[in-house]
Specification:
Elements (H helix, E strand, L loop, with lengths): L1 H18 L28 H5 L31
Protein name: Lipoprotein
Organism: Zymomonas mobilis subsp. mobilis (strain ATCC 31821 / ZM4 / CP4)
Length: about 80
C-alpha cells in the first residue's frame, strides 16, 4: 500500500511538468524591458535580421588548403608508440 502512494507521489510532479510542455502561446516582453541591449561598438541598434545573419568573422570562408599531390613523410623521431 505504501509503495503505491510512493509511486503516485513520484509521478505526480512529472505529470505536472510534462503537462506544461504542450502549452502554446505568444511570447512577449515584460513591460518596461527592452528586447536587447545595443552593443558598445555599434552605431545603430541591430534589428532581428542583422542578429540572425552571422558576420563574416564568425563564418570565415574556406581556404584552399587541399593537397594537390602526395609527398613522402619524413621520419619523425618524436612519434613514439604508446607504452
Amino acid at each position: 500500500m505504501h509503495l503505491r502512494w510512493a509511486i503516485i507521489a513520484g509521478l505526480l510532479p512529472v505529470a505536472f511538468i510534462l503537462g506544461g510542455c504542450g502549452q502554446r502561446g505568444t511570447l512577449s516582453m515584460p513591460p518596461g524591458h527592452s528586447p536587447q541591449v545595443k552593443p558598445e561598438t555599434s552605431r545603430v541598434m541591430p534589428d532581428r535580421q542583422d542578429l540572425m545573419n552571422p558576420p563574416s568573422q564568425a563564418r570565415p570562408d574556406r581556404t584552399q588548403d587541399i593537397l594537390l599531390h602526395s609527398t613522402v613523410r619524413t621520419e619523425d623521431y618524436f612519434d613514439l608508440p604508446p607504452r
